[in-house]
Automatic annotation (TrEMBL):
Residues 158-201 form the RecX third three-helical domain. Residues 44-54 have a biased composition (Low complexity). Residues 63-101 form the RecX first three-helical domain. Modulates RecA activity. This is Regulatory protein RecX. It is found in: Cytoplasm. Residues 109-150 form the RecX second three-helical domain. Residues 1-61 are annotated as: Disordered. Belongs to the RecX family.
């Protein structure tokens, strides 16, 4: 077998590479944990940024943002803001601190809110003092503050508004005088007018509308009806 060329192989009998042959390249494979490079500074920076993003925000800052968003829609009472903060999970201690500060700088002012509410709702919707007092109470305005605001709406102004409301409705009212009378008195009652004010306003407006309505109005005893309602 001397004439046969020596067998090459991978082990001890492998022939050395001939001159000019390329140097064998190592096989590629997955690096082991020993030769893995540590993460660079960029990776560490991203991790720090992610951690900073997850850091919880200051509760007082969140509370202030909630209040300002509420106030951007319309003026609010302190009670309304406190309810909004509680609904968002703000602690009572933080809410009190933020609202106390807003009170100090005049951002919230229940007295000013009540005055503006009475003026706007009476002029725009024709609401009487009783209905306005109920609305202020629902918004958390205390009784003394509400009473002070309602004092600016006197009885004569309330009676004039009632009469104007009736006259406007009479322009499109249809039906017999007694049916119209009942509907209009009911309308004023829903707006918070006392029975006496409502009945007199409707009686006076009917008397000025037509001869038939005036004849019916003459039969109405406002004082007797008021006593019955009472």
């Amino acid at each position: 077998m001397a004439g046969r060329r020596a067998r090459t192989g991978r082990g001890w009998d492998a022939s050395p590479p001939r001159t000019g042959d390329p140097t064998p390249r190592p096989r590629r494979g997955r690096r082991t944990s020993d030769d893995e490079s540590p993460p660079g500074p960029g990776a560490a920076g991203r991790a720090d940024a992610d951690q900073a993003t997850d850091t919880p925000r200051d509760e007082a800052e969140v509370a202030r943002e909630i209040c300002l968003r509420q106030l951007a829609v319309r003026p609010r009472t302190r009670a309304e803001l406190a309810t909004a903060l509680a609904r968002r999970g703000i602690s009572e201690e933080t809410a009190d601190a933020v609202l106390d500060r807003y009170d100090e700088v005049g951002i919230i002012d229940d007295a000013a809110f009540a005055r503006a509410w009475v003026s706007s709702r009476h002029a725009g919707r024709g609401l009487a003092r009783r209905a306005l007092a109920n609305e202020l109470r629902q918004r958390g305005v205390d009784g003394d503050t509400a009473s002070a605001a309602l004092e600016e709406l006197d009885e004569s102004t309330e009676a004039e508004t009632a009469r104007a409301l009736v006259e406007r409705k009479l322009r499109t009212a249809r039906g017999e005088p007694d049916a119209v009378f009942r509907r209009l008195v009911g309308m004023l009652a829903r707006k918070g007018y006392p029975p006496g004010v409502a009945i007199r306003a409707v009686k006076d407006a009917l008397a000025a509308q037509s001869a038939e309505a005036a004849e019916f109005a003459e039969q109405i005893d406002a004082d007797a009806l008021t006593d019955t309602e009472g």
